[in-house]
Design a protein that fits this description.
- The protein is of the alpha/beta class.
- The protein has helices at about 20-30, 45-55, 60-65, 90-100, 105-110, 150-155, 195-200, 225-275, 325-345, and strands spanning about 10, 40, 75, 90, 115-125, 130-135, 145, 165-170, 180-185, 205-210, 310.
- It contains 9 helices and 11 strands.
- The strands form 2 sheets. Strands 1, 2, 5, 6, 7, 8, 9, 10 and 11 form a 9-stranded mixed β-sheet that branches.
- Strand 10, helix 8 and strand 11 form a beta-alpha-beta unit.
- Helix 1 (about 20-30) runs antiparallel to helix 3 (about 60-65), helix 1 packs across helix 9 (about 325-345) and helix 3 (about 60-65) runs antiparallel to helix 9 (about 325-345).
- The longest helix has about 50 residues, at about 225-275.
Length: about 350
């Protein structure tokens, strides 16, 4: 059922056929007794996130991925792709999600949901990122809490040019509008592949972000030697840029919180001392006993978040993997995700046990 806690969040990026990478990460986390209260999913991350909210674990989700083929996800656009605005039709994915036990919409939209689910999609005519959720956020946000449907998941997977945009009718009027309307959505990764803010607004403090693009400065990335490779690399860097921006903003917010905290602390101490010049214990009211940088009496209103743990591959995954769904490719992504999770876990100062069994 929906966790009472919101401390742990998993942010799953987009990447199409690379999505078995998420499952390898999930297996490692499950083995180390870390399981999310909140899952934020974009594109294939929305598919895997909805599966987790439906009650799947790493083993049952991996069983689904091992059976997933390209024909279960997409087919050729029967219309002339040059006269339309997409190349591949995602109607097979809609059928797969509905009939092959990937998602249980009844459970996702009930108190029995396994996680607080957040799905992102980009409104085509405004470029605005919409975040849909099956529960309220802990903090003020632009979240649209509503009944999650297959349309929400498909909209998050609607990669521009590759797949058709998805139409959805609002379930409720958006603030400032008088009536519901039909909106058209593209993949959430169009503007934000790994939206940290959605996890933070939900209440998370321990956040793990799963990227499918090399992250560190020592990443092994070859210079592209073909048009397809160049297009793939530019897409991956564009997706990564949104996360870099989010992480930079998180660090800036932490700096502001520290400044606000110190300002409030000093102002309160001064006021207290003025009122209690003969009370030697006045300043102790604003002590930071747990030494987290925030006076204990202010921790309900101010908080500093640690950097997320970032799981990412060491080298670029071939761009063709985005639209290719094969058992061989899934196994490669699964193994890579597991090992990259181990590496990130250890780098974050956490104890790793065991190893990946075949």
């Amino acid at each position: 059922m929906l966790p009472n806690e919101r401390k742990k969040a998993l942010v799953l990026s987009g990447g199409g056929g690379r999505g078995a990478y998420h499952v390898g990460v999930l297996r490692f986390l499950h083995e180390h007794e870390w399981w999310p209260d909140v899952v934020v999913g974009t594109s294939i991350g929305a598919v895997n996130g909805a599966a987790l909210a439906s009650g799947h674990n790493p083993h049952s989700l991996w069983a689904l991925w091992k059976r997933l083929t390209t024909s279960n996800v997409q087919k050729a656009n029967l219309f002339n792709p040059l006269s339309g605005n997409f190349l591949l039709d995602t109607s097979p994915l809609r059928e797969t999600l509905s009939k092959d036990n990937w998602v249980d919409l009844g459970r996702i939209n009930s108190p029995e949901a396994s996680v607080h689910l957040r799905i992102t999609a980009t409104e085509v005519d405004t470029g605005r990122l919409h975040i849909f959720g099956n529960s309220e956020d802990k903090y003020d946000s632009s979240l649209r809490q509503e009944t999650i449907t297959v349309d929400h998941i498909i909209s998050s997977c609607s990669i521009p040019l590759v797949y058709p945009a998805t139409k959805m009718t609002d379930q409720h009027p958006i603030d400032g509008e008088d009536q519901v309307k039909e909106r058209v959505y593209w993949d959430g990764a169009t503007v934000s592949n790994t939206p940290l803010a959605a996890a933070i607004d939900a209440g998370a403090e321990d956040i793990i972000v799963v990227l499918m693009t090399p992250w560190d400065d020592e990443a092994n990335v070859d210079v592209p030697d073909s048009l397809i490779q160049a297009a793939g690399l530019s897409l991956d860097w564009a997706l990564l840029a949104s996360f870099r921006s989010d992480l930079k903003m998180l660090r800036r917010v932490n700096q502001v919180v520290q400044l606000l905290s110190e300002n409030q602390r000093l102002r309160a101490i001064i006021e207290e001392l003025v009122d209690n010049l003969d009370n030697e214990n006045a300043a102790s009211l604003y002590a930071d006993v747990d030494k987290d940088g925030i006076p204990d009496v202010l921790e309900d209103t101010l908080r500093i978040l640690p950097d997320p743990v970032v799981v990412s591959p060491r080298k670029m995954i071939p761009v063709e993997q985005i639209v290719s769904y094969t058992l061989e490719g899934h196994q490669r992504m699964y193994d890579m995700g597991y090992e990259d999770a181990r590496r990130a876990w250890i780098a974050a100062g956490r104890q790793a046990e065991g190893g990946l069994g075949k």
